[in-house]
Amino acid sequence: MKLKTRRIIMFFFIAIFLIIAPLIIFYASGYRFDLKRYKILRTGTLFIEAKGIKKADLYINNKLYEMPFDEKIFIYNLLPGDFQIKLAREGYHDWQKKTVIQSSLTTFIKDAVLFKDEAPQLKFEGQINNFSISPDQQKLIYISATDSFEEFYYYDLLMGEKKLLYRIPRQDSAPRFFWAPSSKKILLNYEQKYTVIAIENNKNVVSLSSIISLAPLNVRWDLQSDNLLYGQSKNIIYKIDLLTKKTGKYFQLEESQINPEFYLEGNDLFYLEQTENKNILSKYNFSYKTTKKILELSKAEHYKFIKSTNNYLGLIDLDNQKLYLVKKSNTDLEINILDEPVMEFKAKEAWWDDKERQLLFYDDFEIAVYNSKINKEQIINRYGQVIKKVAWYPDLDHIIILSENNIQIIDITQEIGTRNATEIVNIDKLYNFELDKKGETFFLNGQIGKASGLYQLELQ
Fold this sequence. Notes:
Blueprint: H1 3-28, E1 31-34, E2 39-42, E3 44-60, E4 63-64, E5 69-78, E6 81-88, E7 95-101, E8 106-109, E9 121-125, E10 127-133, E11 139-145, E12 149-156, E13 161-169, E14 176-179, E15 185-190, E16 193-198, E17 205-207, E18 217-221, E19 228-233, E20 236-241, E21 246-252, E22 257-265, E23 268-274, E24 278-285, E25 290-298, E26 303-306, E27 312-317, E28 322-330, E29 335-337, E30 343-346, E31 349-352, E32 358-362, E33 366-371, E34 376-382, E35 387-392, E36 398-403, E37 406-411, E38 421-426, E39 429-435, E40 441-448, E41 451-458
Parallel strand pairs: 3-8
Antiparallel strand pairs: 1-2, 3-4, 3-5, 3-6, 6-7, 9-41, 10-11, 11-12, 12-13, 14-15, 15-16, 16-17, 18-19, 19-20, 20-21, 22-23, 23-24, 24-25, 26-27, 27-28, 28-29, 28-30, 31-32, 32-33, 33-34, 35-36, 36-37, 37-38, 39-40, 40-41
């Protein structure tokens, strides 16, 4: 081979190297050519985690990914932009989320939750008027109505055992009950009669009429003790001691009436003073014997305080569906009301999350969340049908919505596009639901076909 030919071949390979080497380096560094934008861009990475989910199909922009999903996965070299992600597994509802991939960054999705796609199973048949899971998540009580009686049944969620707890004659309106803080007692209310029943010893029944001669309104448990109750009558709030079987005046207004709704926290009593033209939200401190007027309200009859131990006092005007949030500061001896504007929202019910940082609230047609950490309200969704109930899912990234006869679980972390909503159940009639603390089991009060009762639905 001639020298000239050898030099041509050498320079050719050098040229090829000088062209290809940078391309290889760029490729290895995560750069790709975007055919849609006609430019070279540095790619990003996606990390997805769904605990307990194995052998699921992963779809990226509706295309099946080459590798099966197994609890978590890294996906590299994705061009910057919006991506529709889906996880599908037999026996489960599909999980979907729209996310953004950014150049040189890793996008983390750690809130992927797949819910089982199963039919509700009838647990207890009958006309169920009310039911509730205990605060310790170990017990369930439901009221079953017969032609003659309202029967209170206790069901042990751990042992799977059921027993008849109490029975009263059939009422015109459904009776209600309230768990004691320890989950060992309930307070039963029917026709303004109050009865305390011990769960483990249902022969231990105390009628409040044997302790207090008058019929107080809105009797409620002390926040810590199973042996203390409080009840209101006209301008007096009474303290009822179940151990000593004694009653005493706890608080009294000299002239005005007190609304039946009141709230005790620490050494302070929050109450609503009723005047002729308005109501006044006030606070009485038992340590210093002082009274403070907090807020003047329009005239209404029905209110509800939102329980919390954070720096907010919540009150709902149920007649006008209006929520008030008052900023406060807690000390050992007194709760101080801060001199800040009172926030107002449209709501008929509200719940703080377990960390008491986000307040979930809703009216008939709209759901929103107030984040106290960043002082911001976020509208979750609006509906054309009446919302019956909304609750937090335990991971706090989802909320549960009951409307008409179906339940949906919505991902509230969705940053772009429409929030992913998974319809968990849709049956003939659906009145109420309760979810265990782990988010694994639904209890539903409803009807499928001709079978009415309490249904159980496994989610996880």
